[in-house]
Amino acid sequence: MQRRLTYTVGKDNADASPRDWFVATALATRDRLVPSWLASTKRNYREDRRRVYYLSLEFLIGRLLIDTLTNLGLTEAMRDALAELGVDLDMLRALEPDAALGNGGLGRLAACFMDSMATLEIAAMGYGIRYDHGLFRQTLKDGWQHEYPEDWLSFGNSWQFPRPEITYDVGFFGHIESSRLADGMLAHVWRPGETIVAVAYDTPVVGWRGKHVNTLRLWSARAPDALRLDAFNQGDHVGAQSEQARAEAISKVLYPSDSTPAGQELRLRQEYFFASASLQDLIRRHMRQTGDIRRLADKVAIQLNDTHPAIGVAELMRLLVDVHGVGWKEAWRITQATFSYTNHTLLPEALETWPVQLMERLLPRHMQIIYLINAMHLDLLREKGASDAATLSSVSLIDERNGRHVRMGHLAFLGSHKVNGVSALHSALVKETVFKDFHRLYPDRIVNKTNGVTFRRWLLEANPPLSRLLADTIGAGVFDEPERLIELEKFADDVEFQNRFAAAKRENKARLATTVFERVGVRVDPAALFDAQIKRIHEYKRQLLNVLEAVAFYQDIIAQPAREFAPRVKIFAGKAAASYHQAKLIIKLANDVAKVVNADPATRGLLKIVFLPNYNVSLAETIIPAADLSEQISTAGMEASGTGNMKFALNGALTIGTLDGANVEIRERVGDDNIFIFGLTAREVEECRAKGIDARETIAASPRLAEALRAIAGGVFSPDDPHRYAQLVDTLTYYDHFLVAKDFDAYWEAQRRVDARWRDQKAWRRSSILNTARVAWFSSDRTIREYAQEIWNVAV
Ligand code: 26V
């Protein structure tokens, strides 16, 4: 550290700022993992291991200092060493900006998977984009969300290794030249009209106990020439840099694509840019190692994280056929054997398609290849006798319905040997809905891989008090073998252990109470039930249902001034896509309700509501260990899996939730008595919608809901603008697509079951302990082991 401070940062102790100390500490930590990194890389070559490539447009990493120290087992040594220099490790920890190269669950899953792949010593590499600006920073002004650019690189990035020598050309536009070969076959060469250079930046990813270190390789875009010197010399100083600006735009900013179908050309440029650079890179490595392109599928598995890298299917075909001279049929066999694809959503508006016209212009050779794949695929169906018009049009790569579009999900499905959903329910629905016809034709292709989370970050690092207690009680080996969490079961009724378990929770709650006060100026009592809903703001996630229940609860408290209620703190956090008007209005409503409720002495302090701004991985690490109740209340059938649900349960929060995504599997494991399930099932949602989504009758039948809606529509929470929520309440009344009204009474009743359990603290603690004890299966190590064995065919 001292050496790094002096020789890399170039400061002496007297002048060093806290940030200088952070940089010195990060670099000193990084130094400790480099030997293992180099050794891992060598071993991968020496043992000629099958490699796994995880292609993802998002990696929601968060901070790395404590994560790296924990995995290396150096946290305490570092703490002591810094203390001797008069520096506090926890103060440095807070200075690191989050690497927020993702929107939500999909990006965070990729980060958990990187951790688990390193832990399981899989020869894996993550590929993505090194965005200059990650997910926008959210502020709340008077309860309204505002977005500001995020600037994680402004003070440099101590974890990355720039690799200016590792570059690839990525083409766009242009035309195709065809020539006849000696054997009479046609050869095609794409002559791009524009070339962008992809430059590699590597971040080491260290596994548990530092045994194996993988690489996350992120691409940054550059123009081939930094400047048009002729233009510059003629005085056009800005215009001379325009090509550079156009090129760099590709890796400039992460699309906040949760909720906005990013139909922009730039988004397709991002997708092709990173897919192409990654494939060129892995093929170069493969050729160096084997010299035989035909063995690619024996040595390489590529996982497509959603359809964002799906253009890679056409790109690999192009590289194999046009560049490496492999025949079409063999190239297709190699492609299918190499790729596999994970689907993360069923929402029709989230399924990617690209206008054929755009594709023809931007990637003309790929469009030809897609047509060829489609022709071959449809011919095969005709051979199989499945050629009725309806089937053909539903499985065609081209959607002809309104303007021709390429269906990226279909391309990913066809180009892969396995396709997976991310929870048991979701995978079943994948078979029944988006890929129904494909499933009939290829019944073995769709499999389930229920998501998981890394226990290193989400338990060991985020929750030191509980981690210490676990180590004391069942031994520190639990962090090597999470299955041993089950040994906690026998302490579930042990009052002494219950007290210690509750004391750990209380410590986390006190810490969160401090954070709440610092960020929003509201005092919350750590003795109250902490009830948290933290995730992207989306109608299907139903933050509105939670706010409505809060309003009804508030009305109950003031209507019965003599009655005792279990005190609650409702915690909200999450970002809305900038263009998602309805989601932003829900944020404003939560804030408006909070303002009135928190200021009303008639609540007797029994209900507090806080909306914490700028939700990110680090804030999640503070909230989750402190939560008593985890809100997982999406409309059944709409949340593919959820992963926050797993993190909360692991940290001893009880779930209130619908039978959606992985909630179903959490219930199977923690047991019906230790989770609060309510509401319509996925099937019932479907039936209900078929009958119509007019909620007037439902509201009329629920006086409590009607009363809450009346207050909101009447401006009780928005006296400055009494009609602010008129449209919101109207939509809910006449077009209740997310079935908020339908589920309201069941939700209310489930919340009262929560209250009753809370009043019996012994029973609550027992359930809480049993949650932690029984969720070992949701470790992402288990998930990755399943991918390795059933999809990638690599030994673990
Ligand atoms: C959703 C939407 C909704 C409306 C319009 C546009 C749009 C675009 C993207 C998305 C999210 C799709 C992908 C995604 O993030 N899925 C999440 O993946 C997690 C990891 O598998 C899973 O736990 C979440 O349930 C799932 O929503």
Automatic annotation (TrEMBL):
- Identify the cofactor(s): pyridoxal 5'-phosphate
Q: What's the stated role of this polypeptide?
A: Phosphorylase is an important allosteric enzyme in carbohydrate metabolism. Enzymes from different sources differ in their regulatory mechanisms and in their natural substrates. However, all known phosphorylases share catalytic and structural properties. Allosteric enzyme that catalyzes the rate-limiting step in glycogen catabolism, the phosphorolytic cleavage of glycogen to produce glucose-1-phosphate, and plays a central role in maintaining cellular and organismal glucose homeostasis.
Q: Which reaction does it catalyse?
A: [(1->4)-alpha-D-glucosyl](n) + phosphate = [(1->4)-alpha-D-glucosyl](n-1) + alpha-D-glucose 1-phosphate
Q: Which residues carry this modification: N6-(pyridoxal phosphate)lysine?
A: 647
Entry keywords, A to Z:
Allosteric enzyme, Carbohydrate metabolism, Cytoplasm, Glycosyltransferase, Pyridoxal phosphate, Transferase
Q: Where found? A: Cytoplasm
UniProt family annotation = Belongs to the glycogen phosphorylase family.
Under the heading InterPro entries, the entry gives: Glycg_phsphrylas, Glyco_trans_35, Pyridoxal_P_attach_site
Question: Which GO BP terms sit in this record?
Answer: glycogen catabolic process
A molecular function GO annotation? pyridoxal phosphate binding
Q: Which GO terms describe its cellular component?
A: cytoplasm
Q: What name has this protein been given in UniProt? A: Alpha-1,4 glucan phosphorylase
Q: Does the keyword Transferase apply?
A: yes
Q: Which Pfam families match?
A: Phosphorylase
Entry's EC annotation: 2.4.1.1
